[in-house]
């Protein structure tokens, strides 16, 4: 059976992945949620011309020369407008955020004035519009400021609040269930017995899914039996998971039972085995609305495949505007050998030189079990199938890993 190219496998994973349903959430619960609809301003900001500084609201024509003297007729504080009008030879004390009174067209900052009683002396000539924030200088009612598909940052939330939106329409978070398999796995903190290893894959997978905005469901570790694996698959379905991620049991050994268990539950397999390193024994299928990604058990293979396939799927289900990882240009920091038929994702450290050149240094050992090298890497160096040997200094492409 021919190995499926990575691009075809990703297309299969994303096929038909439509954004999940819309729901309304309070503004303070919307951080990192994805907008389901375009958002327009409900008000003009600022609604009136306001002072940008503490000083004196004046008519620029009256304060155009040094040592001009004006009569102080009142005061404006933020939220407390002046009811009168500034006439010829008059000034109003004004504070930052105060509404510029009628008749005034400039603000002279307090450092550029001298005050005695009710007389203000100008020490710096005024200019029309200086130190005034005009009405609508930030935005106007009806302006479309936040677009559908935006993953909301803290800055977006501040803007939405200023636009007068107490609740926001967002996409439901994808629910991702994670099931590990393997008799050899023990939990962290347990002393492993002969032939056992400490379970680590799930911690990376849960964190990676949550960092992309998903809710995660921990299905634990299933023993290497069809019954235990099937029970885990059914728990994922019954929990309402949008995505089931399995890790381990995806290869061809006698104890690799995930594929037959999935098929026995009626999951239609889109592919099994892809032309990728690390991660060849990866699978994908669907059971009703639940999508399934079967990851290899080796920890580096599991993480790399989750990064390349699970993350774009979560983004698509979340309604994100951009779902694919961005490739960056870099330069090889050392020689790399020729590649075979599999697309290679080498773990690499990055160096940014003073001239702006990004250098990718592949780690020396690329074995798919080496977590220390994965943790030390900042990027995946992408090598196309059948890429020839490349020397240090050759241009290359990298995908930055999350920080």
Automatic annotation (TrEMBL):
Cofactor: Mg(2+)
A Pfam family that the UniProt record links to this protein: MoCF_biosynth
A biological process term (GO) from this entry: Mo-molybdopterin cofactor biosynthetic process
Protein name: Molybdopterin molybdenumtransferase
Source organism: Bradyrhizobium sp. LLZ17
GO cellular component: cytosol
Domain MoaB/Mog: 177-316
An annotated Gene Ontology molecular function: metal ion binding
Reactions mediated catalytically: adenylyl-molybdopterin + molybdate = Mo-molybdopterin + AMP + H(+)
Role played: Catalyzes the insertion of molybdate into adenylated molybdopterin with the concomitant release of AMP.
Family classification: Belongs to the MoeA family.
Annotated SMART domains: MoCF_biosynth (SM00852)
Pathway: Cofactor biosynthesis; molybdopterin biosynthesis
Enzyme Commission designation: 2.10.1.1
């Amino acid at each position: 059976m021919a190995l499926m190219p990575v691009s075809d496998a990703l297309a299969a994973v994303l096929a038909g992945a439509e954004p999940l349903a819309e729901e309304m959430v309070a503004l303070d619960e919307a951080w990192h949620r994805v907008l389901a609809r375009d958002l327009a301003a409900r008000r003009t900001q600022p609604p009136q011309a306001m002072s940008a500084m503490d000083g004196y609201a004046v008519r620029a024509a009256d304060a155009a020369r040094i040592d001009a003297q004006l009569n102080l007729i009142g005061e404006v504080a933020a939220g407390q407008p002046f009811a009168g009008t500034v006439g010829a030879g008059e000034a109003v004390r004004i504070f930052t955020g105060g509404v510029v009174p009628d008749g005034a067209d400039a603000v002279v900052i307090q450092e550029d004035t001298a005050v005695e009683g009710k007389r203000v002396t100008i020490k710096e000539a005024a200019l029309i519009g200086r130190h005034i924030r005009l009405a609508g200088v930030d935005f106007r009612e009806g302006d479309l400021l936040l677009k559908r598909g935006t993953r909301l940052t803290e800055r977006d939330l501040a803007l939405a609040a200023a636009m007068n939106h107490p609740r926001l329409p967002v996409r439901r978070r994808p629910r991702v269930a994670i099931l590990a398999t393997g008799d050899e796995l023990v939990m962290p903190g347990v002393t492993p017995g002969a032939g056992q290893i400490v379970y680590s894959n799930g911690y990376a997978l849960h964190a990676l899914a949550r960092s992309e905005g998903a809710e995660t469901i921990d299905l634990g570790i299933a023993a290497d039996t069809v019954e235990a694996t099937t029970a885990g698959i059914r728990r994922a379905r019954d929990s309402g998971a949008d995505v089931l991620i399995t890790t381990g049991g995806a290869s061809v050994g006698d104890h690799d039972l995930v594929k037959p268990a999935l098929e026995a539950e009626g999951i239609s397999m889109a592919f099994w085995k892809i032309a990728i390193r690390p991660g060849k024994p990866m699978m994908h299928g669907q059971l009703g609305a639940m999508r399934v990604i079967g990851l290899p058990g080796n920890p580096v293979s599991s993480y790399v495949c989750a990064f390349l396939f699970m993350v774009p799927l979560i983004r698509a289900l979340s309604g994100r505007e951009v779902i694919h990882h961005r490739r960056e240009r870099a330069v090889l920091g050392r020689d790399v050998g020729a590649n075979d038929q599999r697309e290679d994702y080498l773990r690499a450290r990055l160096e940014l030189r003073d001239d702006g050149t990004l250098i990718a240094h592949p780690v020396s050992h690329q074995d798919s079990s080496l977590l220390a090298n994965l943790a030390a890497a900042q990027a995946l160096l992408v090598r196309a199938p059948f890429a020839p040997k490349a020397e240090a200094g050759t241009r290359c492409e990298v995908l930055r890993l999350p920080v």
